[in-house]
């Protein structure tokens, strides 16, 4: 019912990466998708698999949802566990990375003095989850500022110093949160070394791998984090929304409920109290952790069960003698770096890199991923002064929103962001893109910079000056 078409296998394997791969994706002819990192993109073949699952559900609702779906969910978990080199019983399906983060924060028992550490480059939704936790529990939060470019050693030293200072104050360093690849700026963090540091210091580690599965080679058995989450709908080319949550087996008793709490929850029972049973079929062999996430209310879980098909489709890909995941990641990393250098040359600006930082020995670890970041040829401070906008940061934020929407006039969306006093373009490399596409995007951004200089970003406010 949901098999990929075998006759397409040779076509996928023989097609060069770049624009020619677009024929396998359902993109509109008049739109250039340059922002893979935000929403991902799925091949038409996987979209068809999802629709087959949805049709199968609608044809026989109860039989499919109650009895067939659980088998497909296990297959999806198995595929992700294999990809991540993680134990099957430590992985469960969830909607997105932010949900997984909320699950952990809301389940961990917090005591007075417990401190959550996170870096200023954290994803905004996760920072707000921490702030909510600090407002509603005895825990406190400590934000560690990051101003790239920064060496890996300097970044590690900042977390170590924060942990040491917290202990000196008589507080308990409880949890540290950090990314595999942060969202904005789109840079690789030294998450392996950060995880090891947490283990050595007795601090729980939460690795936010929202940009993880399908983006970087990951081995959770070797990494050994306490908690890990990754979206599958971004870089793994699975329909939205789809993600995986990993919890170390020893810590699973702490994760007593899904979010929202549903039929899988096993409450503590007082003498004489009865526990309501589940209306859904229950697999008695499942652990309490896995059972918690088996059925979390009525959801469209068709994205989850497309994971095996997505992994199979990607296994057909070929590039420079590499196959499957290795080919996808290698091309993405190569293209991201090539594009970064070329766009910086076109604009006369710079790539966000830590290769020149002391201790890096010329190695740009920030760029060891499928994203690159190039500074725009636009002086935000000068723009703010020219148009009597005293707050430079506010001007930068408004320019980001304006550029995002204005890009649609050219048939694309460009993900810019404001960081350390400048505007940057976050470049997302993928198999359906090539250097020429980003050169075109750079020209679009340059045109928008010219328009910004003329005050178009101010809209109606401009006419009042």
TrEMBL record:
Transferase keyword on record: yes
Signal peptide positions (record): none
One Pfam family of this chain: Aminotran_5
Entry GO MF terms: transferase activity
InterPro entries on file: Aminotrans_V_dom, PyrdxlP-dep_Trfase, PyrdxlP-dep_Trfase_major
Alphabetical UniProt keywords: Pyridoxal phosphate, Transferase
Keyword Transferase: yes
Origin species: Viridothelium virens
Organism lineage string: Eukaryota, Fungi, Dikarya, Ascomycota, Pezizomycotina
Domain Aminotransferase class V: 73-256
Protein name: PLP-dependent transferase
């Amino acid at each position: 019912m949901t098999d990929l078409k075998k006759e397409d296998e040779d076509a996928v394997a023989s097609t060069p990466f770049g624009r020619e791969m677009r024929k396998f994706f359902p993109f509109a002819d008049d739109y250039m998708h340059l922002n893979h990192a935000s929403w991902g993109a799925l091949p038409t073949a996987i979209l068809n698999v999802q629709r087959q699952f949805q049709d199968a559900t609608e044809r026989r609702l109860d039989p499919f949802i109650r009895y067939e779906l659980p088998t497909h969910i296990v297959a999806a978990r198995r595929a992700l566990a294999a990809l991540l080199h993680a134990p099957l019983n430590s992985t469960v399906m969830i909607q997105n990375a932010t949900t997984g983060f909320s699950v952990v924060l809301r389940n961990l028992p917090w005591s007075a003095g417990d401190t959550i550490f996170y870096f200023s480059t954290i994803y905004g939704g996760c920072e707000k989850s921490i702030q909510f936790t600090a407002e509603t529990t005895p825990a406190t939060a400590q934000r560690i500022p990051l101003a790239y470019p920064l060496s890996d050693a300097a970044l590690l030293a900042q977390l170590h110093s924060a942990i040491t200072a917290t202990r000196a104050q008589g507080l308990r360093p409880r949890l540290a949160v950090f990314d595999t690849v942060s969202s904005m700026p789109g840079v690789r963090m030294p998450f392996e070394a950060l995880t090891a540091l947490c283990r050595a210091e007795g601090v729980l580690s939460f690795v936010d791998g929202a940009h993880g599965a399908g983006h970087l080679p990951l081995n959770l058995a070797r990494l050994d984090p306490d908690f890990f989450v990754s979206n599958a709908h971004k870089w793994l080319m699975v329909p939205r929304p789809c993600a995986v949550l990993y919890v170390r087996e020893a810590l699973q008793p702490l994760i007593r409920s899904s979010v929202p709490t549903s039929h899988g929850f096993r409450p503590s029972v007082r003498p004489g109290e009865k526990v309501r049973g589940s209306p859904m079929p229950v697999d008695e062999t499942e652990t309490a952790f896995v059972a918690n996430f088996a059925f979390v209310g009525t959801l469209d879980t068709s994205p989850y069960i497309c994971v095996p098909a997505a992994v199979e489709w990607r296994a057909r890909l070929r590039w420079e003698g590499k196959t499957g995941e290795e080919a996808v990641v290698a091309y993405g990393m190569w293209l991201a770096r090539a594009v970064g250098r070329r766009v910086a040359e076109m604009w006369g600006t710079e790539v966000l890199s830590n290769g020149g930082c002391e201790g890096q020995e010329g190695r740009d670890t920030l760029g060891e991923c499928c994203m690159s970041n190039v500074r725009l040829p636009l002086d935000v401070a000068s723009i703010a002064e020219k148009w009597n906008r005293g707050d430079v940061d506010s001007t930068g934020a408004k320019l980001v929103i304006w550029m995002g929407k204005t890009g649609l006039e050219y048939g694309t969306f460009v993900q810019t962001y404001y960081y350390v006093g400048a505007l940057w373009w976050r470049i997302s490399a993928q198999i359906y893109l090539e250097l020429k596409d980003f050169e075109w995007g750079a020209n679009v951004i340059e045109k928008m910079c010219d328009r910004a200089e003329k005050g178009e970003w101010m809209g109606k406010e401009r006419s009042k000056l």
